Amino acid sequence: MADTPNGRGKAGHNRPELHFHVPEPKFRPGDAVDFSYIKVSEPGAQARPDEMCDPIETQSLVNDLVRVLGDDNRAHGPWDPKLDPDTLRKMLETMALTRAFDERMYRGQRQGKTSFYMKCTGEEATSVAAAMALANDDMVFPSYRQQGILIARGYPLVEMINQIYSNRGDKLKGRQLPIMYSSRPHSFFTISGNLATQTPQAVGWAMASAMRGDSRIAATWVGEGSTAEGDFHAACLFAAVYNAPVILNVVNNQWAISSFSGFAGGERATFAARGLGYGIASLRVDGNDALAVYAATQWAADRARSNGGPTLIEHFSYRAEGHSTSDDPSQYRSAQERSEWPLGDPIMRLKDHLIAIGEWDEERQEALDLACAEKVKAATKDAEKNGVLGHGMHHPFHTMFEDVFEELPWHLEEQAAQAIRERKIKWPQR
Amino acid sequence: MATTLIDEDGVLGLADAPSRNMNMIEAINDALDIMLSHDPSVVIMGEDVGYFGGVFRATAHLQEKHGKNRVFDTPISECGIIGAAVGMGAYGLRPVPEIQFADYIYPGLDQLISEAARLRYRSAGEFIAPMTVRSPFGGGIFGGQTHSQSPEAIFTHVSGLKTVIPSTPFDAKGLLIASIEDNDPVIFFEPKRIYNGPFSGYYDKPVEPWKNHPDSKVPEGYYAIPLGKARTVREGDALTILTYGTMVHVSAAVAKEKGVDAEIIDLRTLVPLDIDAIEASVEKTGRCLIVHEATRTSGFGAELSALVQERCFYHLEAPVERVTGFDTPYPHSLEWAYFPGPVRIGEAIDKILEA
After folding, report:
1. Where does the pLDDT of residue B2 fall: very low under 50, low under 70, confident under 90, or very high at 90 and above?
2. How confident is the model over A146-158, as a mean pLDDT?
3. What share of chain B in percent tops pLDDT 90?
């Protein structure tokens, strides 16, 4: 390539030297954290366009932040969903249960009961509040950090734990990595470990629902880091082209393992702005404000259900813990980030709101936290009766070969026979 | 030919059914039309398949007849096409996406390999991907390296995918109907060199139309040919030729020209493979030639060769031979130097028979 030995173009040219830009996060381990560069919008100050508006009318909202809960713990402005106290308490309880579940499963992994776990600490609102704003038969295509949806839809905790332990009670027959749930009865699509693949699938499901004149809509969740995948762009394109009844949720938790959002293009534009580029109505929402998440989801669901088309929602949040049990975030980011995060914690904020409106108190919160821990503990005990990972209480060997196809072809029958033969040699005592 | 058809009313002999002459495109179009009429969950999508009817005309008039809710154009995004088809399958539809050329399928591979092929397994049967991906493949039409490839071995290597390749109009219709009805994802590769007529391998001879070939007599109405069943094109004792697609016709022409009593097996389905038909034939002849147009290294011929060696070794009187495309991209100007035609096949037959 180089025309001259130093590679700087032809001799005699006076062109400036080019610089290669590699994004770098603001803070690394040990750094003092100052998040003052993040523009935190005033709660209640964002306009709420009509659900059937032209996508361009959401333009001001792709760089703003839809917020409802203020520092005074009160709900403000046109996005206040005005939920009754029972619904608010249900939301708080579901988020608290999700956090308690994460705590116990994380410990279970550390105790060797399973291979892997992923918490959603700090991001509970983006799944729980969103799920509560949808109908229970709306089809969801989640990523791996939306356990809150399953809990909100009443999926039994013991089934979740059976799956995490890959034990003989696991409805997925021990085939999937822990937390890659699936539940068709709960309209919860099987989770993939390949990133963003669920996004065009959700759009395809929504297209099918529209083709059939159904009334159900689809929603999908993807991390901001995974929006870099081509699948996400295909999803946006198909959603726009076919005006599909789908909600594309981008959970911007700032970190994709060790890569900050700049590696998904976050330095140049918001993730909500990508949607607008496709002609999709797009909202940027305080993801730690459960009321804002609920209101935005309700807006998008109403729009989709009325044939208004898709909505992209960026949930601006923070991944308070590591990516997974295999990750140690102290190696790449400042530990201060979590405490300095300007949008607080979603559970604390909703709790404080309920207290401020006289519908909750600290004693009840303490009792709730205890009850959640007890509930998870009981479910864990039940699940452990079916075994934990690596203790032999798995599904029969032959199930390894089933469901590759609807029927077993000859080559899999032969291989199944071999596996069963090997078993007698490897584990003669069983 | 002793083929039996599975008809709605039971079993029907080929000779009994009312039929008409069709080329392969017409047979495929007929299969799609029938399935759109039979099953409201069948939808067809792809680049240019709607109003225009497809660049090869395989979907001609289907949108007009069945409406835009059933047959529609898509963006130029194979990832999006396959991804959306996975979602439609999860909804309960039976999508039949067209990928305009097999060479274009690669942007959709993650959705095929990691998603469509694995849904049933990873969800323990809760979700399936009952889609049939149709795609023209193979060379011989001066398509250059991006319109001539034969990537079938990529798909046979993936657990959870079925791979089907017809070689006649009769088979194209019956196999396509069976593929669409199948509850697993099927890659349906259509040898585009023989869309309009069987091909002997002599590029400089006039193209022969399908209407002179017995297998262009296609029964009207619905029939399915079960997947996983090979077809004996010609019975013989001298050697077995295992092949599929365009190369069925080239192999048959070469054997005829050389006066060799070859038994020619058209595999029709690569996965699941009709291993019984292969074993029975090789055990009878003791000699085996494998012919495909795809590149050689790690091609499906390698799998066939290994299986024959493992299962028929003591019946073999000569080493198993492979005739394939070369391990280069498909060249434009040197297409007929690349194509595994009569000279390459003839030499291999001689070598096997002399051994």
Report:
1. very low
2. 98
3. 94
Annotation: CATH topology of B231-354: Rossmann fold (3.40.50)
For residues A81 and A46, is the Cβ–Cβ distance under 8 A? Answer: no
Rounded Cα distance between B333 and A368, Å, is 76
Q: How confident is the model at residue A30 (pLDDT cuts 50, 70, 90)?
A: very high
Catalytic residue among B38, B61, B66, B147: B147
Question: Rounded to an integer, what distance in angstroms lies between the CA atom of residue A81 and that of residue A298?
Answer: 8
Question: CA A319, CA A338: separation in Å to the nearest integer?
Answer: 8
Record: contact B83-A201, CB cut-off 8 A = yes
Between chains, do B275 and A411 touch, taking CB under 8 Å as contact? yes
> Is A231 in contact with B83 (CB distance < 8 Å)?
yes
Place of tokens 């291989």: A415
How far does B182 lie from chain A, in Å, by closest CA? 9
Instruction: Express each pLDDT in A364-405 by its tens digit.
Output: 999 999 999 999 999 999 999 999 998 777 888 899 999 999
The bridge status of strand B231-234 relative to strand B262-266 is antiparallel
Interval B120-176: pLDDT, tens: 999 999 999 999 999 999 999 999 999 999 999 999 999 999 999 999 999 999 999
Q: Do B83 and A197 touch (CB under 8 A)?
A: yes
Using an 8 Å Cβ cutoff, are B49 and B59 in contact? yes
Q: What's the CA gap between B47 and A240, in Å, rounded?
A: 17
B183·A197 Cβ contact <8 A = no
- pLDDT digit string (tens) for B214-241? 999 999 999 999 999 999 999 999 999 9
Residue B354 DSSP SS3: helix
**Has residue B16 got a pLDDT over 80?**
no
Domain range list for chain B: 11-219, 231-354
Q: Which CATH architecture has domain B11-219?
A: 3-Layer(aba) Sandwich (3.40)
Tell me the residue type at A142.
Answer: P
- For B184-219, what is each residue's pLDDT tens digit? 999 999 999 999 999 999 999 988 999 999 999 999
Question: Which chain B residues touch A199 with a CB distance below 8 Å?
Answer: 83
Which of A197, A203, A404 comes nearest B115 by C-beta?
A: A197
Q: Is the pLDDT of residue A430 over 90?
A: no
Residue A81 CA, chain-centre distance (Å), reads 22
Provide the residue ranges of all domains of chain A, joining segments of one domain with +: 55-384, 400-426
CATH number for the region A55-384 comes to: 3.40.50.970
Fold agreement between B11-219 and B231-354: yes
Residue A230 near chain B (CB below 8 Å): yes
Which of B43, B76, B123, B156 to mutate to test binding with chain A, by most A CBs within 10 Å of its CB? Answer: B123
> Kind and range of the H or E element at B262?
strand B262-266
Between CA B263 and CA B198 the distance in angstroms is 19
